[in-house]
Amino acid sequence: MEPKFFCHDCGCKININEANEIVNGQLLKYNLPDGTDKSIFKCNDCYQKSKSLNNFQETEVYSRVVGYLRPVSQWNE
Question: What is the pTM of this model?
Answer without folding.
Answer: 0.59
